[in-house]
Amino acid sequence: MQESVQKLVNDGKMLPLMEEFYTIQGEGFHKGTAAYFVRIGGCDVGCHWCDVKESWNADLHPPTDTGLIIENSLKYSDVVVVTGGEPLTWDMSLLTQGLRDRGAKTHIETSGAYALTGEWDWICLSPKKVKLPKEEIYQKAHELKCIVYNKSDFAFAEEQAAKVSDHCILYLQPEWSVREKMIPMIVDYVMKNPKWKVSLQTHKYLNIP
C-alpha cells in the first residue's frame, strides 16, 4: 500500500472495504430487521472457527473513501452495521460521524480487542479468548454475544458477563459447524441460567448473506 494511502487509512479517511450489502440482520437483539452491512478487512484475533477468514488480511481489500461508504450505505438503510474482520483495527470516528450526521443509526459487531473509536448507537461485543476485549468497552456494550464451540466456553461466557453492565443483554450462540452438538447444551444452560438468551445465525437458515 502506498504511504499516502496508508496514512488516509490510518486516519480513517479510507477503510479497507471487504464488502457491503443490504440484508436482514441474522443474529442477536436486532435479528430479523433490515440493515446495511459494511464489512471492514483486517483482523489479527485469529479465531480458528471464523467463517470469514478471507477478511483477515486487510491488504486484500481495497482502501475505500469513507465518504463513499457513507453514501452507499444511506441509499439503502438508516441502520448501518459495521463488522469485519475486526473493525476497531481502524479509526471509526469519521465513518460514524458521517453516518450519524445524516441521521443513520450506527451499530458495530466487535471483539473489543482494540480501543473503541466512533460513536455507536448499538455495540455488540463478542469477546474472544485469544485476544480479550479492552476493559473500557465492557460497560458500553449493549449486548454480549459469546460463541459456544465447546463446553469450556460456558465458563468463559460467565467471566465476560461479570464485566458488562446490568443493562447488557447476554447471548449464547452456537458456532455454526458444531451447532447440532452445542444447541442442546445451550438450551439446557439457558433454562438453568435464564439471564442468558439463545442467539442463532438465522441468516444462514434463511440462506441470505
TrEMBL record:
Cofactor note: Binds 1 S-adenosyl-L-methionine per subunit. Binds 1 [4Fe-4S] cluster. The cluster is coordinated with 3 cysteines and an exchangeable S-adenosyl-L-methionine.
Coiled-coil segments: none
Presence of the UniProt keyword rRNA-binding in the record: no
Positions bound to substrate: I24, Q25, G26, R39, T83, P209
GO biological process entries: tRNA queuosine(34) biosynthetic process
Residue sites binding S-adenosyl-L-methionine per the record: W49, C50, D51, G85, S126, P127, K128
Entry's EC annotation: 4.3.99.3
Keywords: 4Fe-4S, Iron, Iron-sulfur, Lyase, Magnesium, Metal-binding, Queuosine biosynthesis, S-adenosyl-L-methionine
Catalyzed chemical reaction(s): 6-carboxy-5,6,7,8-tetrahydropterin + H(+) = 7-carboxy-7-carbaguanine + NH4(+)
Protein's pathway: Purine metabolism; 7-cyano-7-deazaguanine biosynthesis
Gene3D superfamilies: Aldolase class I
Cofactor: Mg(2+); S-adenosyl-L-methionine; [4Fe-4S] cluster
Positions contributing to [4Fe-4S] cluster binding: C43, C47, C50
GO molecular function, one term: S-adenosyl-L-methionine binding
InterPro entries with a match to the protein in the record: 7-CO-7-deazaguanine_synth-like, Aldolase_TIM, rSAM, rSAM_sf
Domain Radical SAM core residues, every copy: 30-209
HAMAP family according to UniProt: QueE
Membership in a protein family: Belongs to the radical SAM superfamily. 7-carboxy-7-deazaguanine synthase family.
Its job: Catalyzes the complex heterocyclic radical-mediated conversion of 6-carboxy-5,6,7,8-tetrahydropterin (CPH4) to 7-carboxy-7-deazaguanine (CDG), a step common to the biosynthetic pathways of all 7-deazapurine-containing compounds.
Subunit annotation: Homodimer.
Name by which UniProt lists this protein: 7-carboxy-7-deazaguanine synthase
Gene from which the chain derives: queE
